[in-house]
Amino acid sequence: SCHFVLVNLNRTFDMIPSSIALITGATSGFGKAIAEKFASEGYNLIITGRRQERLQQLSEELRNNFGIEVK
Question: Which residues does residue 18 pair with via DSSP β-bridges, in sequence order?
Fold first, then answer.
């Protein structure tokens, strides 16, 4: 199953606010689709899933395709 949480970090000292989405179950199906959607909107992501190899592959794809940070 997939879950997601949005966090908006308002920074001080003239720093641009950044948004982070935490997505579980991101290695396939709905979770992967949600990760791709949020990445396309410019969100930095924290993704989890049971398949480490798929997580690493997805992280690289999202970084390369959307220029975001992925943890």
Answer: 9
Name 3's bridge partners: 24
Are 4 and 21 within 8 A, CB to CB?
A: yes
Nearest to 41 by CA among 64, 67, 22: 67
Q: What are the tokens at 62? A: 């999202």
Q: Residue 64: CB partners within 8 Å, gap ≥ 6? A: none
**Mean pLDDT, each 10-residue run in order, the chain (71 residues):** 55 55 91 93 92 95 96 92
pTM of the model: 0.76
